[in-house]
Amino acid sequence: MTQAPKSNTNMLRVAGGVLLAVALLAGGRYAVSRSTAEEARVIPAPALDEPAQAGATSEVAVLAGGCFWGVQGVFQHVKGVTSAVSGYDGGAKDTAHYRVVGTGTTGHAESVRVTFDPRQISYGRLLQIYFSVAHDPTQLNRQGPDSGSQYRSAIFAASPEQEKVAKAYIAQLDAAHAFPAAIATKIEPDRGFFAAENYHQDFLTLNPTHPYIVFNDLPKVENLERLFPESYRADPVLVSAGRS
């Protein structure tokens, strides 16, 4: 939603106002209509990836793809990711607050800062997961039920190498017609990442029965496990764990 905090809205938009059934299954698993979340797609791996840097053990990628709850939740389940923090990028520090960003006037996008070990997973592989299961990159200024520039698809490249890989991959996917429409993802300069409020961190894990999470985001984690089993880990790396 663009004007009201997520906590104050039901976040479930369905045709004619009819709520689609969400069934709680044994073991805490959920069955949801796949048409209600961004559709996951099998896409080719990037032909161009970052070269391995001798001695490098940590790298950062900042990715925006709609509500940060789901994007964070996906990358917290990716092997090789050591931290995934929800926040804001694209605007000034003094406007990096949820209620202000929600006006769509700050330049910020809800983003996730993904810190990863390049010895375990490459930047290109993260982008493959980002485009395939974390969001729908063909949507312009919207994802699922959320609309506004703060929900845009954007990559905030941390280096010229990241920018080069991201540009090449978008061109590759468009040329291969991997999606039914052109990719709307923009590569933007990193104006500084600002962590979101504590109540937004680890939201998917801490609130697995929240209607928005059930309806929009749990399917993304399930798709990660299904399409990228070699990159999936069952236990997420949580922001709260780093505070203990």
- Radius of gyration, in Å, reads 17 Å
What's the N-to-C terminus distance? 32 Å
Percentage of β-strand residues: 15-25%
Taking pLDDT < 50 over at least 5 consecutive residues as the criterion, the unreliable ranges are 1-36
| Helix-strand sequence | EEEHEHEHEEEHEEHHH
How many individual helices? 7
**Oligomer description:** single chain
How does the overall form come out from the CA principal axes? globular
Report mean pLDDT, rounded to a whole number. Answer: 87
What characteristics describe this protein?
alpha+beta; Peptide Methionine Sulfoxide Reductase, Chain A; globular; single chain; two-stranded antiparallel sheet
Explain how this protein is built.
The protein is of the alpha+beta class and 244 residues long. The protein has one domain (6-38, 58-243): Peptide Methionine Sulfoxide Reductase, Chain A (2-Layer Sandwich). It has helices at residues 68-76, 98-101, 123-134, 160-175, 203-206, 211-227, 239-243; strands at 23-24, 30-31, 59-65, 81-89, 109-116, 142-143, 146-147, 153-157, 186-189, 194-195. The strands form three sheets. A six-stranded mixed β-sheet has the order 9-8-3-5-4-10, with helices on one face. The chain has a two-stranded antiparallel ribbon with strand order 1-2. A hairpin with a 5-residue loop joins β1 and β2. α1 crosses α3 (123-134) and α1 packs parallel to α6 (211-227). The radius of gyration is 17 Å and the shape is globular. 40% of the residues are buried.
